[in-house]
Design brief:
With 319 residues, this protein is of the alpha/beta class. Helices cover 37% and strands 14% of the residues. It has 10 helices and 9 strands. Strands 1, 2, 3, 4, 5, 8 and 9 form a 7-stranded mixed sheet that branches. The chain is globular.
């Protein structure tokens, strides 16, 4: 069954309804495992806010990303998406999740929100949220899936891919406070680096000559960032790409989320046997809307996490 959803939801449903779950770790067991986690801290932040406070913070994020779908609190977004998928058979008991996010520790809360709904995920993280696991990594992930009814049974996968960006409570894009660090930090640092890479190319950024430069050769000691820059350059060469002289961090994050989605969908098309497996895809931008002083909800300006959904073109079965 294909679960129709607005394109802005950034979620796709591909599932069979008749599912007999296998035994996996219970939600109660997960709750004990996640005690004190970043995800639970975010739950407490959200619960402490009034509706007007939530709306005000969402408006700050929306202003920083005016070209995208409206932001949703990460808790609410994952809860709605997981419930919709579970109704069609992709539940915690039947499904393994692949999380493809940035390596930044600030992304741990989002990953843990996913794992609250799907159990421990297969980590495919890379700088900037780029997709670097390749076909071998996808094969390893799929071989970890629960199987319906015993060996050789139907498998189910949840693919979650997100770039990330900080937008502090005052609306400053890229600014975030980190626990124990006295000066203001930034996020995503890798995408800020990619932004500098593009701006360093001036008017030539995105041209064939720019993409062939020696500095983009993969480096054994710096492989992920070099790969990220290659993918960004490829996107910059496409029609409708941002002006390299005017591009900012928000547009760079949208660009990175888009290239990651494209790479993930290509891997899915190449690796997933739809005769033997069902899957759902969630793509978006994870936004850290944190306060001017690092806290977990105890102060006047709590740290909040948002998701800006992006559409995915993967559809199986076709609607």
């Amino acid at each position: 069954f294909f679960l129709p959803a607005p394109a802005a939801m950034g979620v796709e449903m591909l599932a069979k309804a008749d599912v007999r779950p296998a035994r996996r770790r219970s939600l109660a067991e997960d709750a004990r495992a996640f005690a004190g986690s970043a995800a639970l801290s975010n739950h407490a932040c959200v619960a402490a806010l009034s509706a007007s406070q939530k709306n005000a913070r969402a408006e700050v994020v929306a202003k920083a990303f005016p070209k995208t779908a409206p932001p949703a609190l990460a808790d609410d977004f994952m809860g709605r998406a997981a419930a919709a998928f579970a109704a069609r058979g992709l539940s915690r008991d039947t499904t393994i999740a692949l999380t493809a996010m940035c390596r930044d520790e600030a992304c741990a809360g989002m990953r843990e929100l996913v794992e609250e709904h799907y159990g421990q995920s297969f980590h495919a993280h890379s700088l900037g949220g780029a997709i670097t696991l390749g076909k071998v990594g996808m094969g390893a992930f799929m071989h970890h899936s629960p199987t319906e009814g015993g060996p050789g049974g139907r498998e189910r996968y949840a693919f979650i891919s997100m770039a990330h960006c900080a937008v502090d409570s005052s609306g400053k894009v890229g600014a975030m406070q980190r626990e124990g660090r006295h000066e203001c930090s930034s996020g995503c640092g890798a995408l800020l680096g990619a932004l500098g890479h593009v701006k360093g190319g001036g008017g030539d950024a995105g041209t064939p000559a720019w993409r062939k430069q020696d500095s983009l050769e993969l480096d054994r000691l710096n492989p992920e960032f070099k790969f990220l820059c290659r993918r960004v350059d490829s996107a910059m060469a496409q029609p409708g790409a941002p002006n390299p002289k005017k591009i900012g961090l928000a547009d760079m994050t949208i660009l990175a989320a888009g290239t990651a989605r494209e790479d993930l969908e290509e891997l899915i098309a190449d690796c997933v046997d739809t005769k033997a497996a069902d899957y759902c895809v969630i793509t978006g931008i994870h936004v850290h809307n944190w306060g001017p002083v690092f806290n977990t909800g105890e102060g006047d300006v709590p740290n909040l996490e948002y998701v800006i959904p992006t559409p995915s073109s993967t559809t199986w079965p076709s609607p």
